[in-house]
């Protein structure tokens, strides 16, 4: 097998192929934009085709639920949880339920140097590191194999991630009886930024502010929850400065310039009201217009209940979460990613050419002009 995918836009980097290969012939390598793609070692490849067959993008598998989900407005009853979450704290509620039944939780967290990667949690403390959105593509490593092992060991598993990561795991596990104990939670996903840009951004902040980064916080509730503030709330500290700093240049590249996202995001097959997951969580944007009594500066969530398992998951946290049914039109109006992928600007290629030629600091200088 020469390659798993023919075009970059046909690979979301979910790593299902890497986790599937029976001869370890595949490694995930970063390209010049910093996104991971499978590379096949021809000397080890036995042409079994498993990598192509498991791919949720090239094999247009039937991963989505057929029914229209039930739409809910929701928030965690604990103010402390709201303040430690991006939106209405629903991830904490559903992961509490699974951990409380002796299960395990998978999600994205930072390592010591603020790289983003998917990890496994078997207690509340480990799970807490997964809270809060990190707007950088997470490295999946061998996480699908860890999930499989937990399912073989008869553990309940909650796996959280972007819609393409969920589709990848679903394809990897397949329709076997193992899927019985697997609960899938995705996010409504705007698109996913480059780990290389994130690395260069962190280096720039350290250069400008001195010392090593000691904390980074996207979407922190130190700044009130609102759609407008979601483009501003990024705070960080460094070892040489006691002050908390705010910087919005990464958000600007991500949400305004739209230049730093993975090529597959523009062709995303999961920007659909029919989801691949059991339950979908996101921000309830616009709630102040539709149901002002629900507006809370500490955060409000939208939940899509995609099937019976999603319903079951929500039922498990009935005591912790307050929720109410809402019309699906609100979700479709406020959440573009339920109907169409992000559109890249015409200048995306030039952006990456300049990035390669002149480096990140040049890119930032252009942004400031
Ligand atoms: C890249 C990205 C794009 C998003 N786009 C939108 C959007 O367009 N509209 C919208 O309303 N909401 C979007 N969200 C979702 C939103 O930001 C919150 O993550 C969601 O509402 C959950 O909030 P919470 O309060 O329930 O949980 P929190 O406690 O904040 O839980 C965070 C959850 O997000 C997961 N997560 C964090 N970072 C990543 C990552 N890099 N990759 C995969 N999973 C991750 C964690 O595993 C955990 O399950 C996006 C999130 C991400 C990570």
In short, what is this structure?
InterPro entries: 4Fe4S_Fe-S-bd (IPR017896), 4Fe4S_Fe_S_CS (IPR017900), FrhB_FdhB_C (IPR007525), Polyferredoxin-like_ET (IPR052977). This protein has 369 residues and is α+β, with helices and mostly antiparallel strands. The protein has helices spanning 16-20, 50-54, 79-83, 90-100, 124-128, 143-152, 163-173, 195-209, 249-257, 287-290, 308-316, 328-334, 348-358, 360-368; strands spanning 26-30, 36-40, 70-76, 104-110, 116-121, 157-161, 182-187, 213-218, 234-238, 241-246, 279-283, 301-305, 321-326.
Q: Helices and strands, in N-to-C order?
A: HEEHEHHEEHHEHEHEEEHEHEHEHHH
Distance between the termini: 47 Å
Low-confidence stretches: none
Residue fraction in strands: 15-25%
> Average pLDDT value?
96
Number of helices: 14
Beta strand count: 13
What percent of residues adopt helix (DSSP H or I)?
25-40%
Strand order of the largest sheet: 5-4-6-7-11-12-3-13
Major beta sheet summary: 8 strands, mixed
What is the SS-derived class?
A: alpha+beta
* Overall 3D form: globular
Which small compounds were modeled alongside the protein? flavin-adenine dinucleotide
Radius of gyration: 20 Å
